[in-house]
Amino acid sequence: MEVSLTQEKLTRALAAASRIATNKANLPVLNNVLFRVEDSKVIIAATNLELAATTSVGAKIVKPGAVTVPAKIISEFVGNLPSGTVELSTKGSALTIKSGGYTSTLNGIDAEEFPELPVINEETSIHYTLSMADFKQAINQTIFACSNDVTRPVLTGVYWHSHDGWLYLVGTDGYRLAERRLVETTSELEAIVPTSTLHEVLRASTDTIDEVDVLFDESQVRFRVGDMEITSRLIDGKYPNYRQLLPSDTTPVATVETSELVRTTKIAALFARESSGSITLSTENETQKLSLDSVASDVGENSSKIDAVIASDGSVSLNSRYLLEVLSVIDAKSLTISYTGKLAPIVVRPTAENPEYTHIIMPLKS
Amino acid sequence: MRYLPVEISLFTDCQFHNRFLVVENSEIIYTEFNTLLRGLAVDSPSDTSIWKLVLDEVELSVSHANFTTWFKPTKLTQLSGEMATVLVPNIFAKRQFEVKFDSMIRDIFKKHGKTVSSITYIVEPSGTSKRSVSREVHAEPTDLVNERQSTARVMAASVTAPQSSSTPMSTLNPKYTFDSFIVGSSNDLAYTACQAVAETPGTKYNPLFIYGGVGLGKTHLLQAVGNKIKSQNPSSKVMYISSETFVKEFLEHIRFKKTGFADKYRNVDVLIVDDMQFIAGKEKTQEEFFHTFNTLHQANKQIIIGSDKPPRSIPTLTERLRSRLEWGMAIDIQLPDFETRCAILEAKASLSSVELDRKTTEFLAENIKTNIRELEGALNQLLAYCEMRGINPDVSTAEGLLGDVRRQRPGHITARQIIDKTAKHFQLDVKDVCSPKRDKHIVVPRQIAMYLLRSELHMSFPRIAAELGRKDHTTAIHSVEKIEKSIKLDFITREQVASIREMLYA
Predict the structure, then answer these.
(1) How many domains does chain A have?
(2) B233 vs A: CB within 8 A
(3) Cα–chain-centroid distance for residue A359?
(4) Is A142 found in the same domain as A213?
(5) Does residue A118 sit within a domain?
(6) Nearest chain B Cα distance for residue A160, angstroms
(7) Which residues of A touch B (CB under 8 A)?
(8) A229 FRET partner, CA 20 to 30 A, in A108, A201, B433, B499?
């Protein structure tokens, strides 16, 4: 193989590859990144057998071929090079990298050893093209609610599914749940995408790219962001029937400004550290105030009131961390809170006629 | 080798073959066995041992790292004829096998005298949470690849099925069957009548009129009749509509001068009309329905009607239609008693393969009395919650989730209403019930009223006594206890209490 390409493109492709290439695997070739000439491009790929990232980079091809070399070291080496043209050439399973006065030779492993990259049949798969802004927002609004409890694998991913002609994304850890409606769809989809995959896709998404291409088949998903493709397994299993948990009555109890609520919640959280984040949210119809109270027996206590549109009196205890996390992604000037009883789920939604985002927090028994 | 056939006939189940094979470990015997075994059970242990032989040989030809990553976690699940199915741990392995290892594996099979022309590689489901999936793996491994697709296909099929069959208009839901209907004293008459009608449509009880409150199972029974008739005689035309649809189509027929309206309804073998009460006040539609009714009835076609009220209580029903509806048999479905509610909960829970303990069942059954749909809703909510949290359903979870249901219940019922309805049910004067009279036909209703005040409104005994004009609260205590006891023993009292309750919550 003999090719030359720009340092910037190479650095970007290698950064993604080196994150994915692992050194924990039994198979040494998984520590490596694959270079392979295909058509007039260089394919740069890495996999950890859960997901694979491949970037195709435009390059000047002198001689086709393929090789794999340790991902970490080549990534750091290329990252430190000055910008300009980088020349890659192979001799057996060794790769020589040359840029200006810098030359390195890395001992690699034969490209034949590298696992076959997964392919997905575009014709039989379900396909979505999403705007980058929507996609990023939807992932950010759901991914933080996912569980990292490996004993319940289905909750460690974001659940993509169709319902009533819409594509919904859902994340939950059993204590809170985030649901985001994304686009209209005619396909029947039910797939759980691992959070690690989505994090990787988010990292690959730069501001200059405005679309994400998503392709699902029965057991895998592929995201295409610019010239990078991330293919991943789906989490196998049945997602809980979470719709049963969505309260049927979501008449807002309180409507507040997001920034105000963020400030008060942060303050209340200060006093809630020893009670594992427990704060009490109360609404008073007569004064049209929403108040947050927290007590730390050693430190003292805190009570803040803010202006709000209040429909009924009530109070409920919840974890301030959960509230703060949803406030940081809700992306709306004002929001509504509703709950029907001390132990009923608390629903947080952006103020809108037909809100796309619904977040549910289970209350704490106080 | 001579006694080989004896071995085979003795151990066709193959428990022994394994051992035999391992001990001898000779290629010739193995081949002999294999030829003889071809066409036997797919999942027999001999498959496992063949795969073991294959793996042993692979291990010699690939690196250790390659072997542990790719080959070690695999399983052979099916070997029939020249087709083999291999479970692999993930999509990467699947691709790897398909592209890189396939021919090597087939070569090794061949060396062992087994020609395998195609191997299907299937990603093994992690199956930690889903028992049903792992069961499917053994039964039909090939379907698993398309598990998602095949469910989609099944769903599509169930949607299109009614269209492809002889009755384009029936919208029966196959999940409503007699088997899934829970029978209790509150609904066994209706159940029996419906079964009789399903056995011999058009002969007995025509029309059959089933009425009862919301969510007590009318629709379930009506659909079960339709499904039963269809399953017995797939060519029979069963039409299930709600009277609302009938009204709507009739209006369209008039407005857009659509043809075929009369034929559509008059050419069926069984006409099931649900929610008949919606026809009230629509005179033209009633007339049309009246003619449809007559045509079908004269041709001995079965008519089944569901409604939330008996014919005589549906306001603005024309006299001639009312008399037609009362012609056959009118049966009511009452509120299910406690035991039936428990049975329903248990049946529903076992459908979702969850086992509820007695306390939880009783808690739910005790707190949701009026509506089976609500009961199911509460159960579904509990199960969904527990599934999400990964915990087992128990009373305290149920209380936490549904606690509110119980508290908000009595809000709209007053003591006065209970006494009024009780008096009305026994056709007594409210004054008599509250009077000091001790005639037997007054005493029992009075005691039932006290019992209801206690059970529905949780009133204190002195207040119950006061409501009914008694001075002494011990009378109230005695009455409540007496009715509680007789509800358990006496069918009539139970019926009476249930129907008053139904009137209260209707």
Answers:
(1) 3
(2) no
(3) 17
(4) yes
(5) no
(6) 13
(7) 25-28, 47, 49-50, 52, 113, 115-119, 151-155, 172, 174-175, 177, 188, 190-191, 218-220, 233, 235-238, 240-245, 340-341, 343-344, 365
(8) A108
With CA atoms as reference, report the closest residue to B305 among B386, B190, B388. B190
- Does B387 contact A240 at a Cβ distance shorter than 8 Å? yes
CATH of the domain at A275: 3.10.150.10
Is A366 inside a domain boundary?
no
**B294 touching A, CB under 8 A?**
no
pLDDT digits (tens, 9 = 90+) for B4-30: 332 332 233 333 333 333 233 333 333
CA atoms within 13 Å, Cβ hemisphere of A107? 1
Q: What is the pLDDT of residues B292-317, one digit of tens each?
A: 888 888 888 889 998 888 887 777 77
Q: In what order do the strands lie in the sheet with B329-333?
A: B238-242, B270-274, B302-307, B208-212, B329-333
**Chain A contact set for B149 (CB, 8 A):** 218
In the prediction, which pLDDT does B27 show? 36
Residues A236 and A182 in one domain: yes
Per-residue pLDDT for B149 more than 50?
Answer: no
What is the set of domains in chain B, with CATH numbers? 4-144 (3.30.300.180), 188-333 (3.40.50.300), 338-408 (1.10.8.60), 413-505 (1.10.1750.10)
Q: What CA–CA distances, in Å, run from B438 to A44, B94, B442, B472?
A: 96, 84, 7, 15
Give the best-scoring range by mean pLDDT among A251-260, B11-20, B157-166, B436-445.
A251-260
Provide ipTM, 2 decimals. 0.74
Tell me if chain A has a CB within 8 Å of the CB of B434. Answer: no
Smallest Cα distance from A342 to chain B, Å? 9
- Could you read off the pLDDT of B402-414 as tens digits, one per residue? 765 554 445 567 8
pTM for the whole thing?
0.61
Nearest to A41 by CA among A1, A94, A82: A1
